């Protein structure tokens, strides 16, 4: 079954590109025709590219990866936040801070600061031990951090891939991802550069319905990958991740602990099997002995019956004599 249908793409306006005077010649191969001064995107190609992107995202998440959703333009903000929250992935929908990927160590410190501020009860002035002015300053700092970093609050490391709406507007995010060799999955409108994107989806990145539909498709791929990860269907082994993505220290310890526990259990099973074999042989010998005893008892009973018949036959003979 197709991930999305042609009718859904048409109804969402995915096929509408930019005006003919605002285009990137590299996008020519994705353009179907031109109508009323607007380029029309070839949706047959879009369907094919959607399937490729869907499979990539699903496999990445199934092998333990994460996808960052990025879209700061007004048309994308709501869809990005809603779909990323639905599947528990980090997102940026307000403002991309320079260095969010390339300087993540510093960004991570700000995330820790945000978590510290969230522990403060700004309503209880007496218990906080701070003045009202100090609490006001801290509350403003918290609000600012929540606005810019709230979507990546739980992110512990750079993502395995990024989903971007409008690569022209999010060119800083695209540049950082390419520097770190992080795969980029993005909507490509007729004014975008396809060479910047690894998994491209030709489509309209300006219409709310188009952005919502394509973001939902990517979120569905993430959800399917999470299901596969939890069931272990797409992983090669328990606790393993995709090649090139090292395990965290606690995950390595857990995996080594499981392997260490499996070895003594396997060794304990071998002596148990060895002990069970003589016991089974002894039980078989006992059964054979019991069978022999039964046969001997039967023979003795037959002999006793024959002797009784002989005595009965001898009694009339004595009477006649």
Walkthrough of the structure:
- This is Small ribosomal subunit protein uS2.
- Residues 253-273 have a biased composition (Basic and acidic residues).
- The chain has 321 residues and is an alpha/beta fold.
- It folds into 3 domains: 6-101 and 158-231, Rossmann fold; 103-145, Orthogonal Bundle (Helix Hairpins); 248-321.
- It is 56% helix and 10% strand.
- It is built from 9 helices and 8 strands.
- Strands 5-4-6-7-8 form a 5-stranded parallel beta sheet, with helices on both faces. The chain has a 3-stranded antiparallel beta sheet with strand order 1-3-2, with no helix packed on it.
- α2 (43-62) packs parallel to α8 (208-231), α3 (74-86) packs parallel to α8 and α4 crosses α6 (132-149).
- The N and C termini lie far apart (107 Å).
- Mean pLDDT is 79; it is low at 233-255 and 310-321.
Summarize the structure.
The protein has nine helices and eight strands. The chain has 321 residues and is α/β, with parallel strands linked by helices.
List the helices and strands and how they pair.
Blueprint: H1 6-11, E1 16-19, E2 31-35, E3 38-41, H2 43-62, E4 67-70, H3 74-86, E5 91-92, H4 104-118, H5 125-128, H6 132-149, E6 161-164, H7 171-179, E7 184-188, E8 199-202, H8 208-231, H9 249-320
Parallel strand pairs: 4-5, 4-6, 6-7, 7-8
Antiparallel strand pairs: 1-3, 2-3
Helix pairs in contact: 2-8, 3-8, 4-6
